[in-house]
Amino acid sequence: MTGNLAAPVYLAAEDLSMFGRDPWWLVVIKAVFCFAFLMITVLFSIVWERKVVAWMQLRIGPNRHGPWGMLQSLADGIKLMLKEDLIVKRADKVVYILAPIVAAIPAFMAIAVIPFGPADNQISIFGQRTTMQLTDLPIAMLYILAVASVGIYGIVLAGWSSGSTYPLLGGLRSCAQMISYEIAMGAAFASVFLYSGSMSTSEIVAQQQDRWYIILLPVSFLIYIVTMVGETNRAPFDMPESEGDLVGGFNTEYSSIKFALFMLAEYVNMVTVSAVSVTLFLGGWRAPWPVSTFWEGANHGWWPMLWFVIKVQLLLFFFIWLRGTLPRVRYDQLMKLGWKVLIPVSVVWLMCVATVRTLRNENYDFADIALYVAGAVLVLLLLSFIADMYRDRKDAQETPDEPVAFDPMAGGFPVPPLPGQELPPVPRRRPRRERELIVSGGVNTDSDGIDGPRDGKEASDG
What does the CA dihedral 224, 229, 231, 234 come to, rounded to 10 degrees? Predict the structure, then answer.
């Protein structure tokens, strides 16, 4: 790692000459394979999710359709296609019908630039040599970001065109959530661009020959993991369709095949972001470290596709694990995490990565780079410590203001208290024995603040 950091690195010259040479029938075969890979992975992921969550909750899970219930998702898809297709009376029919299509199609487009194998080790399909990748671009990662951003329009248009309040709120939530988390995701991508010197997916995987970027850029990997959960609207960030708040979210007014398209888009996006994570941080199609050391042919032939699929399935299991473990967060917590935590951390980390890359290109030694980075961290910690001391002294000198009483009915309807606010004490009814003493002329206690007779004589005089 020391030698890798010390060597100067410049922009890589992408060699994309092996792409764009396939005959039309081979392009069609590869496109159909990418579509089939996504569909089969989605069908398997739905069954796997239901099985794993059932195992975590000590339930049986699906076990009726097919062996071990493996055809349950296929049966659900057929059932949704055969259900009655309804169109809401107040809906904008054209946009209402196009919204599921707009949400589903971009989810399939990103897989076109994901490499399933090495570009320099071509395979033979019907006697034709070709790469294990549909195509590649010098700006392939920007293409993925653009395609992922288009999918949000389907959700927003679905909520707006339904002509109902709760779907509209779900669409707006999803739009705000994607905008908030795409900024941090872009910063995480930029760190990879700086290290690899390229935006081409095949070149990024090629640059991870010696060491995966999850080791060199761990903060970027963690940021991307959080943002990809937010981008796909999965638990604990499934706010656009939170059943407890929005009845069902943006797809409340949808049924039959149009509802199935929204669910398909969500699971395809899960597979896509997992494939992007594997490509950027987990070595792509490369075999894991123990296998690649003692087996020279692990990264040749059809074997790279196996390692790629295994890594994608592990990340899909991570999605399922989160859903079965963490509860749904509040929307203010979701926004606070995106704007106040992920974005500042990603920007600071990007500056650190850019500084290290600049020092490497200037032929600085690893010891000098580590010394500069450590000095900058110590200066930041010292400034933070001084700022905290000054703030504590200032708070101690100021007299705390009296808290304003919280009125839950101020707006005309009851609202829950915010953090730091307390509900007023609820007046309680007197105990039965105390009421009997008051009625019979006994001692009246002022537990409720109401003035009354103090003893039996005053009660009898009254």
Answer: 180
- pLDDT for residue 429 is more than 70: no
* CA–centroid distance for 241 within its chain: 14
Alpha helices in 217-365 (DSSP H): 218-231, 243-246, 256-281, 289-294, 303-325, 331-336, 343-361
Q: Which residue from 272, 278, 13, 313 is spatially nearest to 138, judged by alpha carbons?
A: 13
Task: Count other Cβ atoms within 10 Å, centred on residue 13.
Answer: 8
Band of the pLDDT at 282, cuts 50, 70, 90?
Answer: very high
Query: What Å distances lie between residue 269 and 262, 316, 405, CA to CA?
Result: 11, 11, 47
DSSP line for 244-270: HHHTTGGGTT--HHHHHHHHHHHHHHH
**At 153, phi and psi to the nearest 5?**
-65, -35
SS in 3 state form for 182-208? Answer: HHHHHHHHHHHHHHHCCCCHHHHHHCC
Let me know: does 168 contact 330? Beta carbons within 8 Å. no
Query: Domains of the chain: which residue ranges?
Result: 85-382
Q: How far apart are CA 198 and CA 212, in angstroms?
A: 15
SS (H, E, C) 415-457: CCCCCCCCCCCCCCCCCHHHHHHHHCCCCCCCCCCCCCCCCHH
Q: Is the pLDDT of residue 164 over 60?
A: yes
The predicted model gives 107-126 an average pLDDT of 89
Tell me: the pLDDT tens digits for 12-48? 456 787 788 889 999 999 999 999 999 999 999 999 9
Query: How far is it, in rounded angstroms, from Cα 42 to Cα 438?
Result: 72
Taking only the tens place, the pLDDT of each residue in 305-319 is 999 999 999 999 999
CA distances from 64 to 75, 150, 389 (A): 10, 38, 64
Which residues are CB-neighbours of 440 under 8 A, at least 6 positions away?
none
CA gyration radius, the chain: 30
- Please give the residue that has the higher pLDDT: either 171 or 370: 171
Q: Which residue has the higher pLDDT, 234 or 438?
A: 234
Q: Are 429 and 423 in contact (CB under 8 A)?
A: no
What whole-number distance in Å separates Cα of residue 266 and Cα of residue 231?
10
Distance of alpha carbon 172 from alpha carbon 155, whole angstroms: 9
pLDDT at 417: 82
Q: Which residues contact 2 (CB under 8 A, 6 or more apart)?
A: 366
**Residue 403: what residue type?**
P
> What burial letters (b/e) apply to 231-240, b meaning 16+ CB within 10 Å?
bbbbbbbbbb
Q: Give the residue with greater pLDDT, 438 vs 205.
A: 205
